[in-house]
Amino acid sequence: MKAFIIALILLVVVIASYQFANNSKEVVAEATTIRVMAAASLTEVFNDLTVGFEEKYDGINLELNYAGSQALYSQIKSGVSADIFASANIKYMNQLKDTDMVLNPSIFAHNKLVVAVSKGNADIQSIDDLVREGVKLVIADESVPVGRYTMKMLDKQVDNPKVSKDYKEKFLNSVVSKELDVKSVVAKVELGEADAGIVYKTDINASNLEKVRVVDIADEYNVIATYPISLLKGLTEKHQEAAERFLDYLYSKEGEEVLEAHGFTK
Question: Which parts of the chain sit beneath pLDDT 50?
Answer without folding.
Answer: 14, 18, 20-28
